[in-house]
Amino acid sequence: MFEFDPHLLPERVNEFASYLLGVKGCSRLTVNGYVRDLRLLFEYLSATKKEHISPDEIEKDYDLSFIDDSFLAKITIGDIYAFLAYCTSERGNNLTTKNRKASSLRGFFKYISDNMKYIPVNPVSHLQIPSGKKKLPRYLTLEQSEALLNAVEGENAARDYCILTLFLNCGLRLAELVGLNLSDIDLDERTMKVTGKGNKQRMLYLNNACVRAIKSYMSVRPVNALKSEDARNALFISRLGKRIGRQAVQVMVYNYLKKIGLDGQHYSVHKLRHTAATLLYQYNDTDILVLKEMLGHENLSTTEIYTHVENKQVRAAIENGPLSKERRK
Question: Hey, which residues are catalytic here?
Answer without folding.
Answer: 173, 197, 270, 273, 297, 306
